[in-house]
Amino acid sequence: MTAAPEYLETLTAEAETPDGTAFARLRGTSDISVSFVPGYYAQTTEARLADKLTQLGRLLWVARMREYYRLKSDLLNREVRGEGRPRNERQAARREARDSIVASGRSDDGRVELSAVGLLSWSATVAPGTVRQVSEEAFTAACAQAAERLVEDHLWQLKLVWASASTGRSLG
Amino acid sequence: MSDNYGDIRSEAKALVEKFVELEVEHQAMLAFNRALAESGDLDDIHSWTNEKKALELQVYSDQWRGEIASWFADITEMFDDLADLPDPAPLRSEAEGLYGALALLAGPSGHTDIADGTVHGPAEAFEKLSAIPTMLVDWEGHAAEAFKLNFIPPLERVAFHEFEAVVSLRSPLIAAAYMWEKAREDVSNLIDEANSALDDYSGGKDSADAVLALGIIGAIVAVAAVPFTGGTSAALYWTMAGSAIAVTGAVVGHPNEPEKQLDISGDSPADIAQSLRDAIWKLKLQLLEHELFISRQIRTLSDQINGYTAPKGTPPIPRDPPYYSTEHSYSESTVHEFALPRPLLADATPGNVNDDGYLGTPK
């Protein structure tokens, strides 16, 4: 696969839930870490954790987009805010297919399962008993693993979708 | 934008490499999609492990990379042409070298160089000009009359025209320097824009609507309009350029209205490459237009200095020899705008200097 340019490798985005209890940080494309305010993990429930992960996924993606276009504006020395309107129906259809990609990721221990539609709408499941049975470190590591796999899954599907709707030349 | 002109060849090489990498991946995905459609096994391709994905991509790349690379080979050559654009610095120093001439030609009242707004004060050499008729009150004869009537009164005007001529000579030099400076920036920017479009493609985004504005479009504009608008008004330029460069108001050409913005984008790396080719082509055409414009200004100026600007209604006198073709024709009435008539005494010899045609004999 093609190596990303340096500014995308070092791109950093951060997100925080509105109640200030959970945080996520992304570096590059799929290196994600999750953390909580001290004491929160021990007192919460799996349902609440899942809710925090759901929020963090969406917020982190939004933050990444914003950072991507900020870096791009710097690089090109002009303001780039986003994609702009689709230029034709083919582009519009391609974007719709992209935004409908269902990607998922699951941690090795099976405790954290994430899925996202177009990286815009996230959902999370945290296995019952997790808070009691595993440490905060092990849990956040599982989150990072699940998130990384979700992003990789999304990117792979994205490549398929993106190529399928183009009109460029083709061979074998 | 990055100011990286010195590395154009290596940057272009890296860019072409990126085009090839992403197009190989793009083609592989097309092939996988086709295989998917034929087998109808939707889950299969989506559940490939990372190892399987990498392997399949490698197999595809080994087979097709060479052919796909040939699609982009011309881009390296296109940037080769743009890798050694002229250095603006010597042109700037040539323009600065004309400051001395302007200072001398500023005449008894001083003038402003409209090419860059420099104010040149009165020149010392003209200090006594107004006193000359009084100082020479006792000098009589044909030569004296010619000197007092035909030489002294138009001297300031002629010096001013010569001042404007030097200004007009500087303007194309500054324009050329600015043009190459901006052209170099444009070349770097084209590479940046292409890289950016490929990053968008690779990240699953369509390129933004905003497009690259060519710096060279404003290059000559800025030079011509500096004292009046700070170089910001291109529109003004289209009417301004002529007056900045024409010395006696003769009609001069304007550059063609240029393609102001270029769009580097596309649905695939090959599409993006095509828009880059178009952009490079337009940039090159614009460079040619600008150079032609500048050389036309210089010829017009040269014509005017040599009296080849016939006023309306004057029967044209063909130029000889015809070094180059313009619409101008020789005119006796404008030839002395730039050079005063040769003094009669210049042809005098000891034998005829006291003849009536020269100094004359006291009566």
Automatic annotation (TrEMBL), chain A:
Amino acid composition bias (Basic and acidic residues), ranges on this chain: 81-99
Superkingdom of the organism of origin: Bacteria
Region (Disordered): 81-104
Protein name (record): Uncharacterized protein
Species classification: Bacteria, Bacillati, Actinomycetota, Actinomycetes, Propionibacteriales
From TrEMBL, chain B:
Keywords: Membrane, Transmembrane, Transmembrane helix
Region (Disordered): 307-328, 343-363
Segments crossing the lipid bilayer: 210-229
Full protein name: Uncharacterized protein
